[in-house]
Amino acid sequence: MTNNSLDQLADRFINYLVVEKGLSKNTVVAYSRDLTLYLEFLKANDISHIADADTTLVLKHLIDLRNAGLGPRSRARHLVALRGFYRFLVQEKALRTNPAQVVDIPKSGLKLPDVLKVDEVVRILGTPDPSKPLGLRDAAMLELLYAAGLRVSELVNLGIAGINLEACFVLVLGKGSKERVVPIGQIAKKKVDIYLASGRPLLLKGRPSPYLFVTRSAMPMTRQGFWKLLKQHALKAGIPHKISPHTLRHSFATHLLERGADLRSVQVMLGHVDIATTQIYTHVAQEKLKAVHTQYHPRG
What we know:
The protein is mainly alpha-helical.
């Protein structure tokens, strides 16, 4: 391709749909409308070269469409149009890869995870009573879950040895017994610090436990137990919709992406890539993840 402006690429794609694919007029109009929305989004984000648009931007665009009220089926059709556009660009050697291809379309239509707004998360995190040991524990658990995007099983199984408050990292044992290191922000560090100093000792009453978060009986918190306390705090915070521990994990990822974090770093923090041991993290990689988290996490 010799003409590579966004509008020129779009025109060539639409012409390809009409001339070579022979699609119906209504289908071409729908593709053209979806593509126009996407190009406007790219331009609004100061993207003038198609090669500068990556999977992160595709995801952010879909999130914007959802926030604007576009339904799942319409977003699924929109993603089909973007995939076709990018596939055409790869075919014409304008691009090497298709950044929209890795975004899945469920059979029921594109369904992005339910997420909370930042202010809703803040309200939930502010509900535990800091004057009580259980309140200090709940505050630390909620903050850590959101700070590191943990699965509930990873949170309740976290050991004392798994958190490094000096370096602001938590060592997580994820699915398939794979370890990953995730940075946490200063607010989470402070709340865990307070819990360790003032809450956990009062709950344990001298009894030993390798687990970070414990109950009054010195037993580790269970998934069901945390689920219940999250519901209680969400109710206290006045959150009208149903939420789960995974809602905070989805919110963690979405809030980072919305603020410009790169998708690869978020994937690493979520544990969606194969990370066998912490040895594969060099000091530089750890500092990069920490910098990304500090820069983009709302409570970093």
